[in-house]
Amino acid sequence: MQENQTAIPAPVHPIVIRKLDVVPITLRTANDFVAEFHRHNGRTARNGGKFAIGVSDGTELLGVAIVGNPLSATYMDGFTAEVLRCCVRDHAPKGSCSKLYSRCWQIWRAMGGRKLITYTLKTESGASLKGAGWSVLGEAKPVKPGWNKNDHLNDARTWQPVMGQLKLRWGVSV
């Protein structure tokens, strides 16, 4: 090297691009993941759902999505399903949620579905849904404390703090 040239230092933190693969998983595995890593929701009722998928970098499970029947009877037409949970670990690469939402729609369409919905808190950006091509369909009003319901989903569904927040309904359809 000549006197007036300086060496370019190697990056301190090299950029590592991890390939993400969508993988099939059981509803129980997905619910265990949700129970451990979701910010404000727990397991789905009775490990319920139509199917579950995960996203992995080949070494660990980084995120999951659970698709099931819509919770609202308004959407129970046999052709509409709901992404009941989408959850990724804090260190999951950007775009992991979008990848899960996109693949849920592809799978549901392959099963004959015509519409897929989900909900986010109004305080959440919805960037992963926008990135997957979904759009806002409307708002879901908060449920007041003291609400409970006995139905086929659970012996006694009781009010949880997340139910008291305004939500946005998102969807994608044919």
β-strand percent reads: 25-35%
Derived from helix and strand composition plus strand pairing, the structural class reads: alpha+beta
Residue ranges: pLDDT <50 for 5 or more in a row? none
Number of strands: 9
Helical content band:
10-25%
Radius of gyration: 20 Å
Largest sheet: number of strands, sense, barrel closure: 7 strands, mixed
Strand order of the largest sheet: 1-2-3-4-5-9-6
Overall tally of domains: 1
- Mean pLDDT comes to 85
CATH homology superfamily: Gcn5-related N-acetyltransferase (GNAT)
Overall shape: it is globular
CATH architectural category:
3-Layer(aba) Sandwich
> How many helices does DSSP assign?
3
Give the end-to-end Cα distance, rounded to a whole number of Å. Answer: 62 Å
Just give the CATH class. Answer: Alpha Beta
Assign the CATH topology: Aminopeptidase
| Elements, N to C (H/E) | EHEEEHEHEEEE
Overview of the molecule:
This protein is α+β, with helices and mostly antiparallel strands and 174 residues long. It has a single domain, classed as Gcn5-related N-acetyltransferase (GNAT) (Aminopeptidase, 3-Layer(aba) Sandwich). Helix content is 18%, strand content 33%. It has 3 helices and 9 strands, in the order βαβββαβαββββ. Strands 1-2-3-4-5-9-6 form a 7-stranded mixed sheet, with helices on both faces. α2 links the parallel β4 and β5. The longest helix has 15 residues. It is globular and about 75 Å long. The model has no long low-confidence stretch (mean pLDDT 85).
